[in-house]
Design a protein that fits this description.
Number of helices: 6
Oligomer: single chain
Number of strands: 0
Radius of gyration: 17 Å
Keywords: Signal
InterPro entries: Kinase-like_dom_sf, Ser-Thr/Tyr_kinase_cat_dom
GO molecular function: protein kinase activity
CATH superfamily: Transferase(Phosphotransferase) domain 1
CATH architecture: Orthogonal Bundle
Protein name: Serine-threonine/tyrosine-protein kinase catalytic domain-containing protein
Pfam families: PK_Tyr_Ser-Thr (PF07714)
CATH class: Mainly Alpha
Length: about 170
């Protein structure tokens, strides 16, 4: 429960920083520009999975890996191999925290569901993190977890990272 209590502290302290990159944006915001409490839940789910994995979701955009952070989390969790997803530096004895790690991954996956109605509310999320809710709903496979390979043609789809440059003009 130590890791879950840390997650609760981070969440309650309002330290969840949403960076406007595709890795943190909910599908409804990225596609339709709709933002809600459930968009924050999606971003928190990505952040939770990043903490457990020890890698940023944008790390996967910079490398030739065939799976995104969400796809990797889903694959290992659904194969009942959550420990393979957990960062080695999180704890000395991963096996000791196996149930807690699996729970964190399941909570993260519940938060990154495609449709906002399938994600928990902030209150429900807090109850999951504190252990008030013991039975976490089984999440569906996240839509954004598809491999970057185009299955119909077998070719790899390129991903670009957008950068923003601000220029300030000053008179002489």
């Amino acid at each position: 429960m130590q890791l879950i209590n840390s997650m609760k502290t981070i969440f309650l302290a309002g330290v969840v920083l949403v960076r406007f990159t595709s890795g943190y944006m909910s599908p409804e915001y990225a596609i339709h520009g709709r933002f809600s409490e459930k968009s924050d839940v999606f971003s928190f789910g990505v952040l939770l999975l990043e903490i457990v994995k020890g890698e940023k979701s944008t790390h996967y955009c910079n490398h030739e890996q065939s799976q995104s952070l969400l796809a990797n989390a889903w694959k290992l969790w659904s194969e009942d191999n959550s420990l393979a997803f957990v960062d080695e530096s999180i704890c000395n004895n991963k096996e000791k925290f196996q149930d807690e790690m699996g729970r964190c991954i399941q909570i993260g996956l519940s938060c990154v569901q495609e449709f906002p109605n399938d994600r928990p509310t902030v209150q429900t999320l807090l109850s999951m993190l504190t252990g008030e809710i013991v039975d976490i709903p089984t999440p569906e496979r996240p839509v954004v977890s598809e491999n970057r390979n185009d299955l119909s043609s077998g070719t790899q789809i390129g991903i670009s990272i957008n950068h923003l440059t601000l220029t300030q003009l000053h008179g002489r």
